[in-house]
Amino acid sequence: MHMIAKVPIAAAPAVRLALFGPPPLIEGEDAAAYDELLARMCAAVKPVDIIDEMYVADVVSLEWEILRWRRLKFTRLQQGVHFELQDFLDLRLNYDAYAEAFSEILADTLAEILAGTLAKNLTKNLAKNQAKELAHQYARSQPDAVKEVGVLLKAAGLQADKILEQAKAQRAKELAREYARREPDAIKQVREVLASNGRTIHDLMVWRLSSSLDETERLDRLITVAEARRNASLREIDRRRAVLGEALRRNVQEVEEGEFEVIETTPAEGKSPA
Length: 274
Fold this sequence. Notes:
Number of domains: 2
Distance between the termini: 61 Å
Largest sheet: none
Shape: elongated
Structural class: mainly alpha
Order of helices and strands: HHHHHHHHHH
Strand content: under 5%
Radius of gyration: 36 Å
Helix content: over 70%
């Protein structure tokens, strides 16, 4: 027995709506999701003519605009909490949390210094290896390494504290990203830092929300305007259907009354109906 594939009901209306031009998408938006919204709206409304299709096109476009503003609102709030967490970590991280990053940055800095000051018989790789070992010893506060690194940095016009701040900021940024990706180790570390300072992630969220109320309110107004326009289009569809339905009922009633009159008047021309 051969199976016959069934064509979705919404496929035909979605194709007819192509005459209104390409979907109003911006870079990064999902065209397949828009097509699905259009198909489901057509299946719900079941447009019967071009006017219905115009209303459906408006409703779908406005609904997509609403979803876009809502996504933007959520993204902005999420980004706000992310940056709030990053700033918090930059101020509160313990040295152990970014010691490795500090050692790496210091090693790169020392390698550049040594590459320009070592004798010609030393290779660049040797300078890099020496810088890495020296930075590692400095990070563990070994006196000889601290003294030697201090001399090298001073000769180059650099300060260890600046490199330390750079490493701390870099690790705070990385840790905030790892937390946003929901990596278990990062979640645990962030919670420990927050708890040790008597804070929670919700505290950071409240601080960010309180500083971004104006932007959130503007987005809410845009969403409300788009919703009002969408609802108006839906009401127009309902109103048009009601008008068409009433007109159809009148036409049916007139036809029925006309047939009744023909049945009543025809016997009067001849014999008695009895």
